[in-house]
Structure to design on (122 residues):
């Protein structure tokens, strides 16, 4: 967001362009949805409602997918600067991608979710 407000192209900040505004809006919306799914998962711990396994897997899968997508968009917004270590964009992408791999891959999370939906559990 800061970069989009500072970086100028064609005499104005790139954040003034609709394409960048849409990226920023989508990134914020999806991050908020991931946060709320995580909160709902935590709520399930406190209320022992029997949904924890499913909600925790949903939160991890969605949050890791959102992190990768948002980090990718961040690199895109930064353009060529997104690939160099002058900005954090390239590190954010690397850090986000690993979340889809460790502590249960995306595919494992989806398998857990599907089994929980089908009442088969683990």
């Amino acid at each position: 967001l800061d970069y989009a407000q500072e970086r100028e192209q064609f005499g104005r900040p790139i954040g003034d362009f609709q394409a960048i505004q849409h990226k920023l809006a989508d990134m914020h919306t999806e991050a908020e949805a991931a946060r709320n799914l995580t909160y709902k998962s935590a709520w399930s711990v406190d209320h022992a409602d029997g949904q924890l396994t499913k909600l925790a897997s949903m939160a991890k899968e969605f949050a890791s997918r959102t992190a990768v997508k948002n980090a990718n968009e961040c690199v895109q917004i930064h353009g060529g600067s997104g690939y160099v270590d002058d900005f954090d964009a390239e590190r954010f992408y690397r850090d986000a991608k690993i979340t889809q791999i460790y502590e249960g891959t995306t595919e494992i999370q989806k398998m857990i979710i599907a089994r929980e939906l089908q009442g088969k559990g683990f």
Summary: The chain has five helices and two strands. The beta strands are 8-9, 12-13.
